[in-house]
Amino acid sequence: QVQLVESGGGLVQPGGSLTLSCAASGSNLEDYTIGWFRQAPGKEHEGVLCMSRGDSSTYSADSVRGRFAIAKDSAKNTAYLVMNSLRPEDTGVYFCAADSKMGPAVQEMCTARGYAHWGTGTQVTVSS
């Protein structure tokens, strides 16, 4: 099965940018649907950006649409969350997740957090 390790979190000023990495091992990430999630202070765990297998269709939470993007590098077996125009409310622990199953729409999987494999998270703090 796939193992996932997030990195790249840290402190950034409002309006700044940050890119998170999700390094996969044990399996080819191309065979998985990929999701990025976050747990903000005082809020529920939410799906941020998720990408399906095959056609690479994506689902984005309303709060990050137009500011965040998901990407992957097949040669490095790594997925990325590219975050721009960061706001204080983006603060939280960010997790990557993966699942090999087919069928469910990416929006359904992302909003329901229906992923079998999870990393342990990386902290992102947006503050001046």
Keywords:
single chain, 4-stranded antiparallel β-sheet, 128 residues, mainly beta
N-to-C terminal Cα separation, in Å?
40 Å
Poorly predicted runs are: none
**Which structural class matches the secondary elements?**
mainly beta
- Principal-axis shape: globular
Number of strands: 11
pLDDT average, as an integer?
94
Order of helical and strand elements: EEEEEEEEEHEE
Rg over CA atoms, rounded to whole Å, is 14 Å
- Name the helicity range: under 10%
Largest sheet: 7 strands, mixed
Strand content: over 45%
The number of helical elements comes to 1
Describe the protein.
It is a single chain. Strands 2, 4, 5, 6, 9, 10 and 11 form a 7-stranded mixed sheet that branches. This protein has a 4-stranded antiparallel sheet with strand order 1-3-8-7, with no helix packed on it. Strand 5 (46-51) and strand 6 (58-60) form a beta hairpin. The chain is globular. It is 5% helix and 46% strand. It has one helix spanning 106-112, and strands at residues 3-7, 10-12, 18-25, 33-39, 46-51, 58-60, 68-73, 78-83, 92-99, 117-118, 122-126. It is mainly β and 128 residues long.
